[in-house]
Amino acid sequence: MNVPEAPQTVPERPGGTDDDRDRLHELGYEQELARTLSLADVVIYGLIYMVPLAPVAVFGIVYNMAAGAVAAVYVVAAIAMLFSAISYKEMAVRFPVAGSVYSYVRMGSNRFLGFVSGWAILLDYLLLPALLCVFAASAMTGVVSWVPAWIWVVIFVAATALINIMGISVTATMNKIFLYIQLVVLAVFLVWAAVLILQGQAHLSLNPFIPADGGSWSLVLGAVPVAALSYIGFDAISTLNEEAEGGGRTVSKATMIVLYQVTALFVVQVFVAGILVPTGTKFADGDPVNNAFYNVVGTAMAGWFKTVLLLTAALIAIFANTIASNATSARLVFSMARDGQLPKFLSRVSHKHQVPLNAMIFIALLSVGVGILGVEQSGLLTTLVTFGAITAYVLLHVSVFTHFVVRGGSRRIFVHWVSPILGAALLLVALWNADPNAKIVGSCWLVIGLGVAAYFKLTGRSLGDSDA
């Protein structure tokens, strides 16, 4: 639908309020996406993206890496991500545009670092939809073993792409339904575990917070990048800046609300699952480690509830997360293409549904290819995804300090000084302890990005000028 440039008499058009449009225009953009999401919608979107049941898919991997101290990993990851959430909160208000960390770094520091951060987190966004489909396919092959995993990948990608193409309002409605189902199943799990403890069939202990057999705490830090996969939804929330009513103010509030809620959900569920695992357990590679949480539930509770949890995680939680991931990835690609950092055709918006259509199709096709090739490499894909996200988060902290302190002379010591410095330091430690293969592949990805940046410069598209 074509809308006149400045009709003061149309209060409910997709562009949102005049203040939202004016602020976007000041930053050099026009309102193209439908601004229809409330604070509750954005919070639900963030919860869906982070997935209340997220630790289920990687429980075995984290448990093995941290020598059983799975709850400690999620606590450390939450502390590290608290500082990132604060940085996102500040930048969402200052730069309410859809490009998330890419736009924040680009405008908060300079175009070159903005491109590098966008390229780094692009590794996350290009691989995450495929990784989620791999998780879902792995779970479904445990129920319907005669269907190959690659077929499940194709089914999940096609279904999530279709829902997203129908528009952000449809996605928001589906998110609410999926969230309620997950919370009900999680509540049943926690109540059942409490009953087992009261009956003496399970025992409370601090084992999920302490590495077994005198294991080093460096093991906990090494597992943080994998657990961080569950917390990287802050960037996804910030991609909704141009579709949220109230823009950056709404996104800022939603960021902190979601952090507190998911931290409580994650730590409680992995702690409970951890005390149900026999002492000294190490899950074998392959299906046992991928399905560790389900197997623990089946042994300690009941086989039928294992199936309920598995189907909820595969068909509800991961499917919902894949919808959100596809939407978020498409918006980052759209934003970078709009700025000329990716092919321009990827910035095309569907006039009917007001969504970045070409970017969504691109992400879907890529997810099918990566998903099929990565069915047997979920561990490597997981660490690769978080490598890109954590690298971008470090640059976000640098930009918060640069914009507010170096340029603005801010005296808000904790928010603009302490938080970004500590946040960057913790994330750099996590990167240092990440999987060696992930570091190698991730570093190669960054080198390719630097090569693309050099190409842009040689062809006359400078990335070095400040946007602020």
Name a few traits of the molecule.
468 residues; disordered N terminus; disordered C terminus
Question: What does this entry look like structurally?
Answer:
The protein is mainly alpha-helical and about 475 residues long. It has helices spanning about 20-25, 40-50, 55-65, 70-95, 100-110, 110-140, 150-165, 170-200, 220-230, 235-240, 250-275, 285-290, 290-300, 305-340, 355-375, 380-405, 415-430, 435-460. α6 (about 110-140) crosses α18. The model is unreliable at about 1-15 and about 465-468 (pLDDT under 50).
Topology (elements, then pairings):
Layout: H1 18-26, H2 39-50, H3 54-65, H4 70-94, H5 101-108, H6 111-141, H7 149-165, H8 168-198, H9 218-228, H10 233-238, H11 248-276, H12 287-290, H13 292-300, H14 303-338, H15 357-373, H16 378-407, H17 413-432, H18 436-458
Helix pairs in contact: 2-8, 2-11, 2-14, 3-9, 3-11, 4-9, 4-11, 4-16, 4-17, 5-6, 5-16, 6-7, 6-14, 6-15, 6-16, 6-18, 7-14, 7-15, 8-11, 8-14, 9-17, 13-14, 14-15, 16-17, 16-18
